[in-house]
Write a structure and sequence with these properties.
With 293 residues, the chain is of the alpha/beta class. It is 41% helix and 10% strand. It contains 9 helices and 8 strands. Strands 4-3-2-5-1-6-7-8 form an 8-stranded mixed beta sheet. α2 packs across α8 (245-264) and α3 (93-108) packs across α4. It is globular and about 55 Å long.
Amino acid sequence: SGGRMNQHSIPEFCAFLEKIGHSVKDLDKLNVIHVAGTKGKGSTCAFTQSILTQLSEQRRAEGKQPLKIGLFTSPHLIQVRERIQINGQPISQLDFAKYFYETFDALRSPHPPLRKVSVDSPSMPMYFRFLTLMAYHTFLREQVDVAIMEVGVGGEYDSTNVVQQPVVCGIASLGIDHQNSLGSTIEEIAWHKAGIIKPKVPVVSVEQVPEALKVIEERARENDAELQVVKPVDDVELGIQGVHQRANAALATELCHVWAQRTHNVTASESYIARGLQLASWPGRSQSFPSPR
């Protein structure tokens, strides 16, 4: 996910953010939905984006301002622009180039000088961290109404975790992954993933194995964060195929419920949630292609 992960990762990323002209507090304007997990976090983000798109269309039909929806995800399938999307589409080549060089040139400029966290702190962010930085910059410049941010690796030290006041956090299914960075046990991995939980910010999780859920509950309690565990949806048509997607759809549904309530003080309508789940698309995941032979 772009270099070493330790207690300096977030302070270093804060310094990079400052270097390009933003403060950590600025990120609160993005009304972030932050999603971590081992399996399903990308699909959860896709469902979330689709549901909020339907909410946006409903607002448009009511004569209200539609939503501008940002999504940061990884990896990409064909073009790197897929990682930074607005309203369901990768940003244009022109916008990608513009925001890339705004970020790159600001980092390379001698003024203001980069605040060094330690003697070993890098002078430039590596690949994933750069793209995270560019995504935050893009969403701030584009003034999105919501930014759906998918964690790269882990959570606690992941560069997306620089945001301090997301609207809601979500945790998809946990398992053994990235052992070199996160640890060899499910408890250690769950500790990292649950690192996205913030003080008094609601957190939603799918059902987890008991060892992982215990860690999530502990970290939620430490942050005085309300935790809700959701069961897979049933009898709902999903645009992304697979039985396992029912848990991701449930997580996305509740994330949208909480987001709508906390930002617009409205109750999410079952009609646009159902339509959002039905129309969700996530290319390259759970897709089958007929053989030409």
